[in-house]
Amino acid sequence: MGCHDVRPLLPARVEELSPLEARVRAEHVAGCSRCAAEAAAYSRLVHALAAMAGLEAEPVAGTLERALAALDRRRMLSTGPRVLMTDPRVAMFAAGSAGALVATLMVARALRQRRRAPRGARPVPRLALATPALARAK
Ligand SMILES: [Zn+2]
Fold first, then answer.
1. Does residue 75 form part of some domain?
2. Residue 36 Cα to ligand 1 middle (Å)
């Protein structure tokens, strides 16, 4: 078996190969430094992805407050403070933006908690919930 035959087997994890494929790969990799290096790179990639899948990134404390303050500043720049106070449409837009952001954060938190739920829990209709809120926040 040459490199060309073994190469498609290199990305697979051992448990994904048939016993014959696993043996063919192991024998070839033992004698071919190029395929050994490639197999090692795939293995590192798989481990990195597995580690990333287990990560749960919490937003830094104060993220919501800073985001709301940034929205506030942007609104002041684009409308001016007097318009902001008098134009109810601006106030409604601002309330909508803040509400969408809060809703997005709530959904994200809920999804994170769902993911921790035991197996067999109902899948979350993720996009249906998150997309309108994200679109409105822009
Ligand atoms: Zn090879």
1. no
2. 7
Residue 118, amino acid: P
Cβ-contact 131, 95 below 8 angstroms: no
| DSSP 8-state assignment for residue 62 | T
Is pTM beyond 0.70? Reply is no
In a domain, 14, yes or no: yes
Cα–ligand 1 centroid distance for 41 (angstroms): 14
Looking at residue 12, what DSSP letter applies?
S
Digit-by-digit pLDDT tens for the chain (138 residues) are: 799 999 999 998 888 999 999 999 999 999 999 999 999 999 899 888 888 888 877 777 888 888 888 888 887 776 655 555 566 666 666 666 666 777 777 777 777 776 665 555 555 555 555 555 555 555
33 Cα to the center of ligand 1, angstroms: 7
Between the CA of 52 and the centroid of ligand 1 the distance, in Å, is: 29
H-run or E-run covering 83: helix 81-86
The domain of 35 spans 3-53
> How much distance in Å is there from the Cα of 2 to the middle of ligand 1?
6
